[in-house]
Specification:
Main location (chain A): membrane
CATH architecture of chain A: Orthogonal Bundle
Oligomer: heterodimer
Structural class of chain A: mainly alpha
Order of helices and strands of chain A: HHEEHHHHHHHHHHHH
Structural class of chain B: alpha/beta
Largest interface: A-B, 24 and 28 residues
Strand content of chain B: 5-15%
Strand content of chain A: under 5%
Radius of gyration of chain A: 25 Å
Radius of gyration of chain B: 22 Å
Pfam families (chain A): BPD_transp_1
Membrane topology (chain A): Multi-pass membrane protein
Subcellular location (chain A): Cell membrane
Shape of chain A: globular
Organism (chain A): Roseibium sediminicola
CATH topology of chain A: MetI-like fold
C-alpha cells in the first residue's frame, strides 16, 4: 500500500520540474545565450576580419587558445561610452521619449480598455478582435502609412487645410511629435490587452456595494476600479515602455535627423562604424537600464504582498 | 502543428530543395536597388540556364555588415570601392579566376588603373558602374531664388551661407553618406578630400554644421522623387540618380526641369565593383555571371537603363547617344582630371567621421 503512495509525489515533483524546466530552458536558449554572446563581443576589440572583432573562440583550438582569448578582454568599450556625451544623451532622450509615450498611451488606452470591459458580453469578442486587427498588417507598413498621413502634403494636413483650421501645412513628419504618434499608435494594443484583462475580472459587486453605501460613481471608480486595475496598468506600461526605449524603426522613419534615440545610435555604431564591440556595450547598458527598475519594482511588490 | 509534423515538414522541404539544387544551376546576386535592367537577368537565364536569385540593398553599410557576419549565401555582390578595399583586407572575397573571364579584355584600362587603389591588380573585382557625387538642381527654382547667374556649377551653391539660405525655402536634400559629404566639405575648405587628419575632418564638420539649418533632409534615395516632383530645388546626390530624376520629370511633363552638375572645384568619383564572396556557394555560376556582365552589349544595355557610366570600353560604341554624349555621365577629360577619389578610413578615424556626421545631422 505504502509503496504505491510514496512514488506518487516523487513523480509529481519530476513532472513539476519538467514543467518549470521548459520556460527556464527557453530563457536559457533565447535570452541568456544571446546575452552572453553580446556581452562577450562587448569586451572584444574591433578588427578588420570576419567577424569584425577579436578574439573569436573556436572550440577546436583547445582550452589554452580560449584562455588566451579571455585574457584579451577589456572594459575599454564601456569606458568609451562615458567619454562621449552622445551616449548618455541618447539614453536619456530615449527614456524621456519612451516615458512620455507610455503616459500618452495610458491616457488613451485606459478609456478604451474600460469601455471594452463595460460593454455587453456579446460585443466583447468583436471589440477584442478590433484591437488585435492591426497586427494582421506588417508593423513596418503601418509605420510607413503614417508617413503618408503626416507629411506636409499628407492626409492630415489636407484635411486641416480644407476645414480651414490652418492656413499653412503643419510640419509634423520628421519631428519628435511624429515619433510620439508612431509609438502611441503602434504600442496601444500592448497596453489595452492586459488592462482589459484586469478590468474585465473586476468584481462588479464591489461597485454595487459602494453605490449602495452612497459613494458617488467617480469616487468608486477612483477608490475601487483604479487600484484593482493597477496590475494591468503596470503590466501594460512595461509592455509599452520597454520596447519603446530601444525602438529604432519609428524614430528612423518618422523622426527627424535631430531625434536622438539609443536605437539609432546603436545602429550607427553597428553599421556606420562597423564597431560591433561598442554597439554591444551600448546594448548591454541598455539592458541594465531596463532590467534594474523592473527588478527593484518586483522586489518591492513582493515585500508589499508579504506584508499584507 | 506538433513538433514532429513540423520537423517532418522541414525535412521534406530540405530534401526538395536538395533535389532542386542538383538539377538547376543558380546564382545569388545582391545588388543596389534600381541598378539594373531586369531583362539582362532574364536573358542570362535564357542563354546559360542559370537561374538568377536577385536581391537588393540600399546602403554599403548594410551590405558590409552582412558580409562581415559571414555565410551570406550570395555569389555576386556590388560594394563601392572604398568599402571593397576594407572587405578585401578582412578576407571577404575570393580572388577572381581570370581564366574563366574571357571578356576581361573588353574592360577600360583607365578605370582599372583607378580601381587599383582599392583592389590591387583588380584581383577580386570587376567594375560594374562608376559615377560622381555632385549637385542636382531644379533649374527654374534655383534661378528664381538666386537669379540668372546662380553658381550651379560650384560648391559655392551649397557651402556659401548666403546662397544656401535663399535655397532653404524651396528645399535642399543632402546624401546621408559621411564618406562622400565630408570629402566634399574638405575639398571646399582647401584640404585634401582624402584627409585622415581628425582636426581637418572636424573643420569640415564645422562647415557642414554652419549650413545645417538650411538642409531639409539627409537621405540617400528620397531625393530622386523629390527632385522629379519639384518638392525640392537642390540635392547633393549621385550622378545617375539625379539623371533618373531628370528623366522622370521630363516624362511627367510637370514643368520641372532637373539638371546635374559636377562642381568645378572637383567632385568625388566612385566605383561600384562586382565581387565574389570567398564562401559563395556557386563559384562557377558567379564567374559566368560576371563574364556575361562584361559582354559589350550587356554592359551597354545596363548603362542605357541606369544612366551611369560603366568600366567597359568595348561597350561604348553600343551606348545610346544620350548616355555616351552626356558629359554628366561620361565627363570630358578636363572634368575627369578634376575628380578625386578617397580611400577607406582606419577604425579610429572612422569613429571621428561618424561622430562628426552624427553631430552635423543632429545638431549635437
Amino acid at each position: 500500500m505504502d509503496e504505491e503512495h510514496i512514488p506518487a509525489p516523487a513523480r509529481r515533483t519530476l513532472g513539476g520540474w519538467l514543467l518549470i524546466g521548459v520556460p527556464y530552458l527557453w530563457l536559457l536558449i533565447f535570452f541568456l545565450a544571446p546575452f552572453l554572446i553580446v556581452f562577450k563581443i562587448s569586451l572584444s576589440q574591433v578588427a578588420i576580419a570576419i567577424p569584425p572583432y577579436t578574439p573569436t573562440f573556436d572550440l577546436g583550438e583547445g582550452w589554452q587558445a580560449i584562455w588566451d582569448g579571455v585574457t584579451e578582454f577589456s572594459v575599454e568599450n564601456y569606458l568609451w561610452l562615458t567619454e562621449d556625451a552622445l551616449y548618455w544623451k541618447s539614453y536619456l532622450s530615449s527614456v524621456i521619449i519612451a516615458g512620455i509615450s507610455t503616459l500618452l498611451t495610458l491616457l488613451i488606452g485606459y478609456p478604451i480598455a474600460y469601455g471594452m470591459a463595460r460593454s455587453p458580453q456579446s460585443l466583447r469578442p468583436t471589440l477584442l478582435m478590433l484591437v488585435i486587427l492591426p497586427f494582421w498588417t506588417s508593423f513596418l507598413i503601418r509605420v510607413y502609412a503614417w508617413i503618408g498621413i503626416l507629411k506636409n502634403e499628407g492626409l492630415l494636413n489636407q484635411l486641416l487645410l480644407s476645414l480651414g483650421l490652418i492656413s499653412e501645412p503643419l510640419t509634423i513628419l520628421n519631428t519628435n511629435i511624429a515619433v510620439y504618434i508612431g509609438i502611441v499608435y503602434s504600442y496601444l494594443p500592448f497596453l489595452v490587452l492586459p488592462l482589459y484583462a484586469s478590468l474585465e475580472r473586476l468584481d462588479g459587486s464591489l461597485l454595487e456595494a459602494a453605490e449602495d453605501l452612497g459613494c458617488p460613481p467617480w469616487k468608486a471608480f477612483w477608490k475601487i476600479t483604479v487600484p484593482l486595475s493597477l496590475p494591468g496598468v503596470i503590466a501594460g506600461c512595461f509592455l509599452v515602455f520597454i520596447p519603446a526605449v530601444g525602438e529604432f524603426v519609428i524614430p528612423d522613419l518618422l523622426g527627424g535627423s535631430d531625434t536622438l534615440m539609443i536605437g539609432k545610435t546603436l545602429w550607427s555604431e553597428f553599421f556606420n562604424n562597423r564597431d560591433w564591440p561598442v554597439s554591444s556595450a551600448v546594448a548591454v547598458i541598455l539592458l541594465l537600464i531596463l532590467v534594474i527598475p523592473i527588478v527593484l519594482f518586483q522586489n518591492q511588490q513582493q515585500k508589499m504582498s508579504e506584508n499584507n | 502543428m506538433t513538433l514532429k509534423s513540423m520537423l517532418t515538414g522541414v525535412a521534406v522541404l530540405s530534401l526538395m530543395s536538395g533535389a532542386a539544387l542538383a538539377q538547376d544551376r543558380v546564382v545569388n546576386v545582391y545588388n543596389w536597388s534600381d541598378y539594373i535592367d531586369e531583362s539582362i537577368l532574364e536573358d542570362f537565364t535564357k542563354e546559360t540556364g542559370i537561374k538568377v536569385v536577385y536581391d537588393v540593398f540600399d546602403s554599403n553599410e548594410v551590405l558590409e555588415t552582412k558580409l562581415l557576419a559571414g555565410g551570406t549565401g550570395y555569389d555576386v555582390v556590388v560594394p563601392t570601392g572604398t568599402f571593397l578595399a576594407r572587405q578585401i583586407q578582412a578576407g571577404v572575397f575570393a580572388p577572381l579566376d581570370k581564366s574563366k573571364l574571357s571578356n576581361l579584355s573588353n574592360m577600360w584600362k583607365d578605370i582599372e588603373a583607378r580601381v587599383e587603389k582599392y583592389d590591387p591588380g583588380n584581383a577580386h573585382s570587376i567594375n560594374y558602374m562608376w559615377g560622381t557625387t555632385g549637385i542636382g538642381y531644379n533649374v527654374e527654382k534655383v534661378k528664381a531664388a538666386l537669379g540668372e547667374d546662380a553658381p550651379v556649377n560650384s560648391w559655392d551653391l551649397i557651402f556659401k551661407p548666403e546662397n544656401i539660405e535663399k535655397l532653404k525655402e524651396c528645399g535642399v536634400h543632402m546624401l546621408d553618406a559621411p564618406a562622400e559629404m565630408i570629402p566634399a566639405a574638405l575639398k571646399y575648405s582647401g584640404f585634401d578630400p582624402d584627409s585622415k587628419d581628425p582636426a581637418e575632418i572636424e573643420k569640415a564638420g564645422e562647415l557642414l554644421k554652419s549650413i545645417r539649418p538650411s538642409i531639409q533632409k539627409f537621405h540617400s534615395s528620397e531625393y530622386i522623387n523629390a527632385l522629379a516632383n519639384g518638392d525640392i530645388c537642390v540635392a547633393i546626390g549621385w550622378s545617375g540618380d539625379v539623371l533618373q530624376a531628370r528623366d522622370r520629370a521630363a516624362e511627367a511633363d510637370n514643368g520641372v526641369t532637373v539638371e546635374y552638375s559636377i562642381p568645378k572645384e572637383g567632385a568625388q568619383m566612385w566605383f561600384d565593383q562586382m565581387a565574389i564572396p570567398a564562401d559563395a556557394p556557386h563559384m562557377e555560376e558567379a564567374h559566368e555571371f560576371l563574364n556575361y556582365i562584361m559582354r559589350p552589349d550587356v554592359a551597354a544595355k545596363a548603362s542605357n537603363f541606369v544612366y551611369y557610366a560603366n568600366g567597359n570600353k568595348a561597350s561604348q560604341e553600343k551606348l545610346n547617344e544620350d548616355v555616351i554624349g552626356d558629359t554628366a555621365i561620361y565627363p570630358d577629360e578636363e572634368t575627369v582630371s578634376n575628380l578625386y577619389t578617397t580611400t577607406p578610413y582606419p577604425p579610429k578615424v572612422q569613429r571621428v567621421v561618424t561622430r562628426t556626421w552624427t553631430g552635423v545631422k543632429s545638431g549635437q
